[in-house]
Design a protein that fits this description.
This protein has helices spanning 8-29, 39-66. The protein is an all-alpha fold and 68 residues long. It has one domain.
Length: 68
C-alpha cells in the first residue's frame, strides 16, 4: 500500500523524472565547440532535447501536483 498522499503512479514516475533531470544536467555540462564541423547542429539538437526533457518532467509532475 502506498504511503498517504503518494500514489502508485508517482512512485513509478520518480525514477523517470530523476533520469530526465540527470539528462538535463549532462546536457548542461556539455560545452559546445562551435569551431568543429557539425557542432552547431549538435548544440541545437541538445537544446531541443533539453526542452523535451523539461516538458516531459512537467507532464509527469503535473498530475501529481493536482492530486495533492
Amino acid at each position: 500500500m502506498a504511503p498517504s498522499g503518494v500514489s502508485n503512479q508517482s512512485r513509478k514516475t520518480r525514477p523517470v523524472v530523476a533520469d530526465l533531470y540527470e539528462l538535463i544536467d549532462a546536457l548542461d555540462r556539455r560545452v559546445p565547440h562551435l569551431e568543429r564541423e557539425g557542432e552547431h547542429r549538435i548544440a541545437q539538437e541538445a537544446a531541443a532535447l533539453r526542452r523535451k526533457a523539461e516538458d516531459r518532467i512537467a507532464e509527469i509532475e503535473q498530475p501529481a501536483r493536482s492530486n495533492d
